[in-house]
Amino acid sequence: MKEKKIICGFSKLSKEQKLQLIAEHFENPDESVNELKSFLHSDQNKQQLFDDFSENTITNFYFPYGIAPNFIIDGKVYHVPMVIEESSVVAAASKSAKFWSDRGGFHTEVISTTKIGQVHFIWKGNTDKLKTLMPDLKDRLLDRTRYITHNMRNRGGGILDIELIDKSNEIQDYFQLKVSFETVDSMGANFINTCLEEFTSELKDFFMDSPFFTGEERNCEVIMAILSNYTPDCLVKSSIECPVSALGTFDENMTAEKFAWKFEKAVQIAKVDTNRATTHNKGIFNGIDAVALATGNDFRAIEACGHTYAAKDGKYRSLTDINLENGMFRYSLTVPLSLGTVGGLTALHPIAKKSLELLGNPGAEELMRIAATVGLANNFGAIKSLVTKGIQKGHMKMHLLNILNQFEATDPEKEQAKLFFEDEKVSYNSVETFLKNMREPAIAKKAMLANKE
Ligand code: MEV
Predict the structure, then answer these.
(1) How far is the CA of 181 from the centre of ligand 1 (A)?
(2) Which residues sit opposite 76 in a β-bridge?
(3) Most ligand 1 atoms within 8 A of CB, residue of 87, 268, 282 to mutate
(4) Which residues contact 182 (CB under 8 A, 6 or more apart)?
(5) Whole-structure pTM over 0.70, yes or no?
(6) Which amino acid residue places its CA nearest to atom 3 of ligand 1?
(7) Virtual CA dihedral for 225, 307, 309, 120, nearest 10 degrees?
């Protein structure tokens, strides 16, 4: 194996050269090149498309693409595509979808769809004067970006408002232009950032050529212009409800009432305990991220926003709420989701396009409803397992194939293992022992007899 050294000019190399160079860092370079190449697409045009999404690509990294069928959302049936590597997430979503399809389905509400961008600048001057001149600055900013916002305005979106935020009490001479946008069916990152960068130039011109500013006031130092991924006003709610008695009975004859009570406690704990809230919300994002990935959306932006929102009152809490009044089980998730169904990767990634087609080519609002619902479904499934049989039983069952693959089990071995572990506890050790016994029955028998003696 080659000693790791700084590589100069890596980006300038051809893909083949990059691959060969990187392969030298593996124990068996030739085998590694073949292994990495085996994940390239056989259709050169398709491969080129994937290469062009990013930089320095040498192969593809596969994730499974699964379907959680039979979600009823606002009376409409969806079979939802999910991209995720973690066993049991798709199964949990599917199970919850089925459970709630018998109980009226999921109900959603898009509360708001506003996105935010900021121009951060340092300016020394008379703040009152700047505030008075704000309407003039606003007109100039809107005029300057009209050519950029033209198409978006035609689609019903554009710039909604521009506010001056005085932050000089936190950082000397620091101000912001806080800009709200409606980006309709696009996530809007490029649109927002393009507008903001144009604002930067106009802002500088404004201080320079307005007759009301003199001396130092004519200088404005723009620090940066960028969208904010915190979009608390791009909010969606998904909820489920049914009479407590309609929840059914659970493992070991747990009654619906007991289940609802334990479920409520679990949610209350996630409301007050940050350690639990983080895991609780992680379970929600298992579903949301998987839909975001399948539809070519930016799951990092969505996660960052969701976690900030979870801490909006100064303490990180569960994103879900429960209400058990009047014999009803009411459970909901309220989450900011800035999603797009046009532009960006949604238009380029062939499978993202297929995902959107499978969902009936929804607009951004409909996708917000779907993604929030899958998040709620995954969370419901997790809490349901946690307060009944525990999470590991189901999770390890789903993980069985991964463990079998680690031991390079053959197809017949897998089939037998599936049968055997239907009623047995799955663990790494138990699977290893099962395979050993299958592969070396005589030795296993001898060992068993020796143990008995
Ligand atoms: C695992 O990916 C997610 C859970 O831990 C979520 C939860 O605990 O609520 C099961």
Answers:
(1) 34
(2) 73
(3) 282
(4) 113, 114, 115, 156, 157, 158, 160
(5) yes
(6) 283
(7) -10
- Best substitution site from 273, 275, 280, 387 to test ligand 1's pocket, by max atoms within 8 Å of Cβ? 280
Q: Say yes or no: domain 115-228 is CATH 3.10.180.10.
A: no
Residues 6+ apart with CB under 8 A from 339: 187, 292, 295, 297, 302, 364, 367, 368, 371
State in Å, rounded, how far the first CA of the chain is from the last one: 49
Least confident of 194-198, 341-345, 448-452: 448-452
What is the spatial distance between Cα 188 and Cα 58, in angstroms, rounded to a whole number? 30
Which residues are registered as beta bridge partners of 163?
178
**Tens-digit pLDDT profile for residues 2-32:** 677 899 999 999 999 999 999 999 999 999 9
| CB within 8 Å of 169: residues ≥ 6 apart | none
Both tokens assigned to 264: 């409520």
- Cβ < 6 Å from ligand 1: which residues? 86, 279-280, 282-283, 286, 382, 386, 391
Among the listed residues 441, 241, 243, the one whose alpha carbon sits nearest the alpha carbon of residue 327: 243
Residues annotated as catalytic (active site), given as ranges: 86, 282, 298, 395
Tokens representing 170 are 């936190």
pLDDT per position as a tens digit, 134-192 = 999 999 999 999 999 999 999 999 999 999 999 999 999 999 999 999 999 999 999 99
CATH fold of the domain at 83-111+232-389: 3.90.770
Tell me the HSE value of 345 on the side-chain side, using a 13 A CA sphere: 17
What are the two backbone dihedrals, phi and then psi, of residue 333, each rounded to the nearest 5 degrees?
A: -120, 130
Contact 264, 322 (CB under 8 A): yes
pLDDT above 90: residue 445: no
